[in-house]
Amino acid sequence: MTTTHRLLLSGNEAVALAALNAGVALGTGYPGTPSTEILENFSKIGGRAQWAPNEKVALEVALGVAFAGARAVATMKHVGLNVAADPLFTAAYTGVIGALIVVSADDPGLTSSQNEQDNRRYAVAAGVPMMEPSDAQEAYDFTLAAVEISERWHLPVLLRMTTRVCHSKSVVLPTRTISPPPTPRFERDVKSLVMIPSNAKPAHRRLRKKLAEISQWNESSPLNRDRPGDTTLGIIASGVAYLHAREAAPRASFLKLGMTHPLPPEKIRAFAAGVNRCLVIEEGDPYLAEAIRAAGVKVESQPEMYRFGELSVARVRRILAGDTSPEPAPVPGKPPQLCPGCSHRNVFEALHKLDCIVAGDIGCYTLGVLPPFEAMDSCVCMGASIGVGLGLRHVLPPEQARRVVSVIGDSTFVHSGITGLVEMVYNPPPTGHVVLILDNSTTAMTGHQEHPGTGRTLEHEPTGKVSFEDLGRSLGLKNVFVSDPSGDPIKFAQLVQACLANQQLNLIIARRPCLLIAGKIKEYERAANQPCTAALDEPE
Amino acid sequence: MNNGVINIVIAGLGGQGVLKAAGIVADVAFRSGRDVKQSELHGMSQRGGSVSSDVRFGKEVFSPMVPAGEADYLVVVAPDQIEVNRHQLRSGGILIAPDAVDPAKLTNKKSFNVALLGVLSQHLEFPEAVWLEAIGAAFPDKLHAANLQAFALGRKTV
User: Fold this and answer.
1) CB contacts < 8 Å between A and B, how many?
2) B6-156 — its CATH code?
3) ipTM over cut 0.90
4) pLDDT in tens, A115-160
5) Which of A122, A240, A511, A522 is the most exposed place for a label (fewest CB within 10 A)?
């Protein structure tokens, strides 16, 4: 074996490398564990990558790139695809000219998420082809295959990853090649790209026809692999579940599915007919088992208890043995907590003392729910703090309503909080409201990514900056305050108290850069202030 | 044993260099031509919580995760994480606990993770030169001396 091109890559790094080698013109997305490193690596190795304000915008930008005939990748975590679902469903109708790869990084086991939804359901619901890599080699190969499939059938392709595939490193031989990308150009095609009902009706029929063709192609596609073994047990699996199953049942026959929508029913039927017992092993929902049964193929699926959490070799062994006894409880580790010295601590101390009802949001500050603060009462999805806070204010008795505050981070506010603020101005509760933006000048939770409020690009270069205080004032808010909760915690608490009492609409921006990034931010700012001299001073 | 695959679990707390240490072990196996998989979890664990990473290498590795009770080596960087992770070890597996190295002897206390790799290295078959290459590749130049000192300190302890 030649070792010259051998690489040790995470699944995320492998997707980035494949995107670069495929000539992807633009990668865009919103940070979210476990997807974040795809764009960071794509940028690092020379690709053009951008953070979008949220996943919907990212997918729309990527769609525009693909409408222009170029190749695009949009990355997001599983819940991000909920936000981007609107363009996804209709992009399946319009189709694309170039390639559009949508990476959905699911999080079975909720390593760092608010739910464990299985986004394979989205491929079916939207009607787009889907591929499920099981390791970094397949992450590389399938990304290139996805580009080819997207261009051949002019459809967006869902590349469905999971936490273990994204964050596990394995050996990659990047030998697969692909035709060079076309030159971007616009061709007017109103019937395909303008989805008024008269155009969308035939577009829906076109989509179903394409999916039928792809299903036929998938019957003999190299993306699915037969691995003959002992015929007493046949296992159908996809993604990382396949690797767990190979280890748990080394002698079994395997049908390893790489493209899991649209499925190849005849291939599956033939495999199942060739074994005495046919079992589907899959992480998450019983998506494959249900689809295969609906196609009239008799297969066993795993007991319901294995739908929850990640699979592992040990859990697959239990499934094979039909073991449904309670599983050993995991030994509790040390839970995460707000860093010592974090300015969020001062905020939650104040909210705790003031006995606030806190509609919370997604980010580091969600840890404000834990002792000693215990100052969060709801956390649902990106941006929900503002809407939920307003809803509580609308109907609670006044003595409770007056204690409600919405707490949202800076990146989360840009992602999905702005429309909530508009709602507050448009439908103000009788007791007023208090929205607190915890502005630590970064997307801290996912590893300190930039966002439109920092005024720096993914590569930390200066760009346009959205000012939250200006935005609030432009919406007509009279009470807009900026305060440093660590600088003077007492003054900050007094400000919150005064806002709670005034029965008006209030926007408080609690601003203090994250301690872990403050030094880096100063470096970026220094570099931005003297770009020319710095470049000239470089030797050679 | 399991197809000749060696299973290593490295555990500690966020900020202790657990993932860095696991990356170095994986790189050593990779540079030595083995099939290798390393599994790690990011996210909430970065905020000071428990962190662990699995490294598996051999002729052919399937699952990226070390099955519970099958670790040949458990390297623990934080004393309070030993009991949390002990179940990972197979019977007869080797625990490398933080008391294996005296942190007072380190040039830079942040290199404690690499010092424990020095201890681990004595149990594995890879030449010292490959370890030094992998450590060199893992850190910027200014941190090389401290990490090589830490590695040498750990490697001498067995």
Assistant:
1) 115
2) 3.40.920.10
3) yes
4) 999 999 999 999 999 999 999 999 999 999 999 999 999 999 999 9
5) A522
